[in-house]
Amino acid sequence: MKILVLNAGSSSHKSCLFDLSQGAEGAAPHPLWRAALDWTHQQGKVELSASGAGESIQQVLSITDKAKGIEAMVKTLVEGPTQVLGELAEIAAVGHRVVHGGRHYQQPVVIDDEVKATIQSLIPLAPAHNPANLQGIEAIAQSLGNIPQVAVFDTAFHSSMPEAAATYPGPYAWVEQGIRRYGFHGISHQYVAQRAADLMGEDIASLKLLTCHLGNGCSLAAVTNGVCVDTTMGFTPLDGLMMGSRSGSVDPGILIYLMRQEGYSADQLDTLLNKESGLKGLSGISNDMRVVVEAMEQGNAPAKLAIEVFIHRLRREMGAMIASLSGLDGVVFTAGMGENSPLLWRQACAPFEFLGLRLKAELNRAKDDQDIAAMDSAVRVLVVHTQEEWAIAHSCLSLLESKHA
Predict the structure, then answer these.
(1) Domain shared by 299 and 369, yes or no
(2) How many structural domains comprise the chain?
(3) In which residues is ATP bound (predicted)?
(4) Is 97 a known ligand-binding residue?
(5) 289 labeled part of a ligand binding site
(6) 20 to 30 Å CA-CA from 268: which of 24, 29, 231, 375?
(7) Does the annotation list 339 as a binding residue?
(8) Is the residue at 263 inside a domain?
(9) Considering 119, 137, 153, which residue would you say is the last residue of a domain?
(10) How far apart, in whole angstroms, are the C-alpha atoms of residue 36 and residue 50?
(11) Together in a domain, 148 and 215
(12) Does 172 reside within a domain?
């Protein structure tokens, strides 16, 4: 069974094709084909890149319509040097990453008109993401016709949190309005938790894991027996950890102060907190930790402060997640920073040596998933390359097989 996965964003689209004819067990395989659209660099044009059949292409197309861009991307599956299919009809289903499923969806679901209407109704909770996800769903319908499409929700994995973890301490009306901690990066957290259990040779149902998704967006999850019991992101992806350009949690009184004293509007606060804060805001340099660390090593004081604040807040939230777990068997690092920064691994784990957590003397980035804990460590520490597209394809296969069972 060949499954196409589409991750549609507001300014980029990423897609993969997997062959699941041999099932979906074990480590994630390389996709047969991978492609991306980037709308950010050239006004009125889109940059298309694709790779498949051992070949790759890069094109700049005079296209502004997202649906036509997706159509052009899909055509590279059956045309040109990256062709891997004889015809598009070989695709059995399409899986979509949908950021927000609200309280409606705790599992992947086959997309129909009701599902699309619900995703539409949740746009106020994810205004930068759900519209793009819907657009991708409609574009696939135009390109591939009446093919089964499956929505896999980034919030679903966190829907198992107890009410005490999900509820904000505002008026009870917030509960009735659906203002609660939803959490995000759930597809990634779920995948890396299961992958860590496999690497540890343990049943995930017996483990207490702290998963750390540290990319431009950052979040932690406390996973007990394969179930999420707490997470750092909240009603929106802005809550929790300091991130690349997002502030993470701040005193709400700061926002009231800025509105009253500086005349900030809601849109200005949105831009300030989401695009001008975090590593980028504090360092004044970049949202890329590698760039900020380089500046710190050259003596840049704001860059040094940015790194120190990032590490402090990461450690603090890790401690909170460990408390929610009531124990710790493993820590898992994933995503851009989490997969590639030995400095971050060492700094993040240092305060937890009292739990018997010890890292290897030599830490190096690796192509493969790895255990970076010392042999005598009481807690395993793993670096796992997140495979969200594969997890989505796997979810599609499981759902469709259950429908035909």
Answers:
(1) yes
(2) 2
(3) 14, 213-217, 288-290, 336-340
(4) yes
(5) yes
(6) 231
(7) yes
(8) yes
(9) 153
(10) 6
(11) no
(12) no
pTM: 0.92
Give the CATH number for residue 79: 3.30.420.40
Of 134, 153, 172, which residue is a domain's last?
153
Do the beta carbons of residue 112 and residue 120 sit within 8 Å? no
Tell me the pLDDT band of 27, cut-offs 50, 70 and 90. Answer: low
Q: 226 lies in a domain?
A: yes
CA distance 387 to 374: 25
The closest alpha carbon to 397, from 8, 23, 6, belongs to: 23
User: Residue 215 annotated as binding?
Assistant: yes
**Range of 304's domain?**
202-383
Inter-axis angle of helices 252-261 and 266-275, to 10 degrees?
130
Q: What are the percentages of helix, strand and coil residues in the chain, rounded to 5?
A: 40, 20, 35
Query: Residue 217 annotated as binding?
Result: yes
Q: List Cβ neighbours of 319 (8 Å cut-off, separation of 6 or more).
A: 351, 352
- CA distances to 190, 195, 302 from 226, in Å: 8, 11, 40
389 within domain boundaries: no
267 classed as catalytic: no
- CA-wise closest residue to 321 among 237, 203, 229, 238: 229
Is 129 labelled as part of a ligand binding site? Answer: no
Cβ atoms 133, 96 nearer than 8 A: yes
Q: 154, 239, 329, 369: which is the annotated catalytic residue?
A: 154
Q: Residue 43 carries which side chain, given as an amino acid letter?
A: Q
Residues 97 and 228 in one domain: no
Q: Is the pLDDT of residue 219 over 60?
A: yes
What string of DSSP letters covers 61-101?
Answer: E----HHHHHHHHHHTTTSSTT---S-GGGEEEEEEEES--
pLDDT of residue 26 exceeding 80? no
Same domain, 242 and 363: yes
Token pair for residue 226? 């394969």
Do residues 120 and 216 both lie within one domain? no
pLDDT tens for residues 162-195?
999 999 999 999 999 989 999 999 999 999 999 9
Mark whether 112 and 214 lie in a shared domain.
no
- In terms of domains, do 149 and 209 share one? no
Extract the tokens encoding 377.
């460590």
Amino acid letter, residue 210: L
